[in-house]
Amino acid sequence: MRKPNSRKQRNLQWRFYRNMRKHRANTLGLEKQVRALKDDVNTLMQATEEQRKKINEIIEERNAWAEFFREYFKVGEEKKAPFIIRVWKEVFAK
């Protein structure tokens, strides 16, 4: 007996599932970066002088990238930004 789903239907389902997995993995990676940024403030308080310099360098580098992304993805107020840009704005929010 033939399966009720056609090959085309199965392929569509699989493609949707695979894309959602990729999308979820990407957004989870960004969420981890958001958490890392929030934790930076706490670690700065307890860090030694050398560690503090290193952390400050990393934060400055992140801020430079944030500035780059803000310039690169200039979005008008009337139009909603694409999802990935909204997430990046959250990641690099000061």
Describe, in plain words, how this protein is organized in 3D.
This protein is an all-alpha fold. The protein has a domain at 27-91. Helices cover 78% and strands 0% of the residues. The protein is built from 3 helices and no strands. It has helices spanning 7-46, 49-72, 83-91. Helix 1 runs parallel beside helix 3. The longest helix has 40 residues, at 7-46. The radius of gyration is 20 Å and the shape is elongated. The termini are far apart. The model has no long low-confidence stretch (mean pLDDT 72). Keywords: Coiled coil. Residues 34-61 form a coiled coil.
Given the structure, what is the number of helices?
3
Largest sheet: none
Q: Give the total of beta strands.
A: 0
Class computed from helices, strands and strand pairing: mainly alpha
Low confidence ranges: none
Helix fraction by DSSP (H/I, runs of at least 4): over 70%
Terminal-residue CA separation: 60 Å
State Rg.
20 Å
Average of pLDDT? 72
Which H/E pattern describes the elements? HHH
Shape: elongated
What percent of residues are in strands?
Answer: under 5%
Quick recap of the structure?
The chain has 94 residues and is mostly helical. It has helices spanning 7-46, 49-72, 83-91.
Question: Topology of this structure?
Answer:
Layout: H1 7-46, H2 49-72, H3 83-91
Helix pairs in contact: 1-3
Keywords: Coiled coil
Coiled coil: 34-61
Key descriptive features of the protein:
single chain, 94 residues, mainly alpha
